[in-house]
Amino acid sequence: xxxxxxxxxxxxxxxxxxxxxxxxxxxxxxxxxxxxxxxxxxxxxxxxxxxxxxxxxxxxxxxxxxxxxxxxxxxxxxxxxxxxxx
Length: 86
Known about the structure:
Helix content: over 70%
Number of helices: 3
Distance between the termini: 34 Å
Number of strands: 0
Largest sheet: none
Strand content: under 5%
Order of helices and strands: HHH
Structural class: mainly alpha
Number of domains: 1
């Protein structure tokens, strides 16, 4: 379980670094736009990537909904936090 947790931490750290760079490049410094950017990233990248994977794996819709929601709301939170944390 340790290697999985370390891998998860590293992946989340990379995602946070990329989101921080995106926020800095777009000049977002307020909560609202940060939340909107997070929602766009969550829907446009995370949810669509999961959708492609789940279509090929034939997983149930409810499982996709849980996983996609987790990533979607995580991206929104990340965008909001990073936007105001400068």
